[in-house]
Amino acid sequence: MRLFRTATGRFVEEDGHQYRIGALTWDALLTHENLEACLDAIVEGEAPTHEFQSVPLLPPIDGQEVWAAGVTYYRSRGARMEESKDAGGGDFYDRVYSAERPELFFKSTASRTVGHGGKVRVRKDANWSVPEPELTLVVNPRGQIIGYTIGNDMSSRDIEGENPLYLPQAKVYDGSCALGPVVTLAGALPPREQVAIRLTITRAGTTVFEGATTLAAMKRSFEELVSWLGRENSFPDGVVLLTGTGVVPPDDFTLAGGDEISIDITGVGRLTNRVA
Ligand code: DO4
Ligand code: MG
């Protein structure tokens, strides 16, 4: 089952048919006591709709905060250590990779986040910018993972590399996050070792970077990340959590205006955005 948030309302999809969710807002769905039963009742009680076809998709968040985990893959640890070695920051990334407490940071709000087909941005005061393709957990206020979507944690590597204390500026700015296209409900995601995450960047029709990993390479469990995030923090409307990147373009790569970024995740779909 998949959930869609669109410009004309919310839809649930089952077996290739879409059904309009009339009465419930996005926040009501994400905080629902029994989301699966509620969606089953809609699928069984309503006729499928065709009005869904050409409706623009919105990012799958409304009142939810967006958080992110970092250095959850060995590849990310190595890339951060390299980019911050001149600033003496390398050791911190090595330590957080194997520490019990994960790196968790506030990433975005709904107003800074774009959906499938929206434009992401690079900072004007950065000269080394990359996308980060990340499986993203959709979590209800009770800390239960109710679904999965795709996240792009846009990052300014020169700013974060200059000083780890600049992380919020490297990570949080207008257009710094893309989410979507849909939410695949929990239970519909294949086993971790079968879930591939692929990043493709094209410039003027030519592929300039392609790379992939699988969830099997992630060091931490989803439950572990959610449990740390929920320590001393409550999320009345639920929260979405990007789980870190295992795909990093080479150090001489930086995004340019007009680049097209596509992220494919097995069982979730493809999120595509252009750089403004
Ligand atoms: O520690 C810096 C950010 C790490 C990150 O965003 C990632 O590993 O995905
Ligand atoms: Mg990241």
Number of extended strands: 17
- What is the makeup of the main sheet? 10 strands, mixed
Bound molecule types? 2,5-dioxopentanoic acid, magnesium ion
Shape: globular
- Output the number of helix runs: 7
Q: Return the average pLDDT rounded to an integer.
A: 95
The residue ranges in which pLDDT falls below 50 over 5 or more consecutive positions are none
Rg result: 18 Å
Order of helices and strands: EEEHHEHHEEEEEEEHHEEEHEEE
* Residues in helices, as a percent range: 10-25%
Q: Structural class, from secondary structure content?
A: alpha+beta
Q: Which range does the strand content fall in?
A: 25-35%
Quick gist of this model?
By secondary structure, this protein is α+β, with helices and mostly antiparallel strands. It contains seven helices and 17 strands. Helix 3 (74-83) packs antiparallel against helix 4.
Description:
The chain is α+β, with helices and mostly antiparallel strands and 276 residues long. Helix content is 20%, strand content 34%. Strand 2 and strand 3 form a beta hairpin. Helix 3 packs antiparallel against helix 4. The longest helix is centred in the first third of the chain and has 11 residues. The protein is globular. The two termini are 32 Å apart. The relative contact order is 0.20. 2,5-dioxopentanoic acid binds next to strand 4 and helix 3. The site of magnesium ion has 7 residues, from strand 4.
